[in-house]
Amino acid sequence: MIAGDKPERRAFGAVAVVHVTAVALTWRDLRSGTAGQVRGDKRVWRMASALNTLGSAAYWLFGRRKDAGPLTHTQIRAIGPQ
């Protein structure tokens, strides 16, 4: 083993735990919310969050609608089936 190997493994493990936790929380929020509460396509947010931790952070900062009211018929047609 290389002398600096152990701290690097610990750092990688910590980053992996943070990423998996962020993805799990993001996907739970996407699953429980309606399409009108999300800016954009839910599938795109799932993919972005799975690829890297910044995808999850972007969802929590920009992807959620806090003031989402009921959808209009035009919005429902534009969103399509989820």
Mind explaining what this structure looks like?
This protein is mainly alpha-helical and about 80 residues long. The protein is about 70% helix and about 0% strand. It contains four helices and no strands. It has helices at about 5-30, 40-50, 55-65, 75-80. The protein starts with a helix and ends with a helix. The model has no long low-confidence stretch (mean pLDDT about 85).
String of helices and strands = HHHH
> Mean pLDDT, rounded to whole units?
85
Which quaternary structure do these chains form? single chain
Question: What's the end-to-end separation, in Å?
Answer: 49 Å
Query: What level of helicity do the residues show?
Result: 55-70%
Beta-strand portion reads: under 5%
Largest sheet: none
Globally, the shape reads elongated
Tally of contiguous helical segments = 4
Structural class: mainly alpha
Global Rg: 17 Å
Identify low-pLDDT runs.
none
Q: In total, how many beta strands?
A: 0
